Amino acid sequence: MNVVFRFFLVAILFVSCTKDEYKKPSYISFNLKNDSIYVNIEKKSIHPTFLKIDDRINKKEQYIDFVKEGTKTILKFKQVEIDTNYIIENYHFNLFYGTSNLKKYDTLYNYGLPFLKGKRYKVLQGNNGGYSHNKITSRYAIDFKMNVGQEVCAIREGLVINVKDHFDKNGTSKKYLNKANLILVYHKDGTFVQYGHFKKDGVLVKIGDTIKKGQLIGYSGNTGMSSEPHLHFTIYKPTKKGLVSIPFILDSISSKKYKKGKYARNN
User: Fold this and answer.
1) Hey, which CATH number is domain 104-265, 1.10.1040.50, 3.40.50.450, 3.30.930.10, 2.70.70.10?
2) Residue 132 pLDDT > 90, yes or no?
3) 187 noted as active-site residue
4) Out of 47, 197, 230, 232, which one is annotated catalytic?
């Protein structure tokens, strides 16, 4: 059977909290100056992000995009009117990958196969697969059956923005949901790709690396919520609700034509 692939990136939030358990994120800070409380965000990431501010008093949502690193004031209040506890209770903050208003991206880009020349691998699950590729975050994903230790290559050039490679277990229960080794890459057109289920210590790139199409980036594995060794990858676009899976062209073929049981060969 194939994998149920839902990393913490399924929500694609840096912070994901319910109303009852909400806590001020670490990237939000307060500064008192001239009888005013300034609410600041510290952006440390090297890729675009956007902040969602949920104003629970006025029932409004605000979105602020950030490109550069650094600290920026996002809200200001008079100290005589409110305190920081009031802000935490009534203003919730969530930081997302990408930009909040991506209107165009390269729908014609020809992604390369995620393995070496001369290799071929069987499709375990394609687009809209009933087993696990039926969510907004996985609808257009593709899984290739790859034994542990097979070479995984980048399907497009980009910037590495997240890496996990310390997990060493797998299973089909939800306790393994967030225990898959992965690589997340940002593309210049505003989209992302995520590769998943690398073996322990099997990732060859680090956050901040610029990688090339066809570059060896790691070795396949069977970590996380997975029932057999394979490689899972998904192309995402950012939305105001987080990253969502999108269709793409893979080796000059529409991703929807990669059907379960068929082979793909990198000529």
Assistant:
1) 2.70.70.10
2) no
3) no
4) 230
Reported residue count of the chain is: 267
How many Cα atoms are found within 13 Å in the side-chain-facing hemisphere of 97? 26
* Owner of token pair 């650094």: 70
- Does residue 16 have a pLDDT over 50? no
Q: Specify the higher pLDDT residue, 68 or 115.
A: 115
Whether residue 109 contacts residue 156, with contact meaning beta carbons closer than 8 Å, is answered with yes
Q: 146-190, pLDDT tens digit by residue?
A: 999 999 999 999 999 999 999 999 988 888 888 999 999 999 999
User: DSSP state, 267?
Assistant: -
| Closest residue by Cα to residue 86 from 106, 111, 57 | 57
- By DSSP bridging, strand 253-254 and strand 249-250 are antiparallel
H or E element at residue 181: strand 181-186
Classify residue 236 by its DSSP letter.
E
Residues 6+ apart with CB under 8 A from 239: 102
| Cα angle 227, 250, 164; round to 5 | 45
Strand pairing class (181-186; 158-164): antiparallel
* pLDDT band per the 50, 70, 90 thresholds, residue 81: confident
Q: How many CB atoms lie within 10 A of CB 204?
A: 18
Q: Name 230's bridge partners.
A: 145, 221
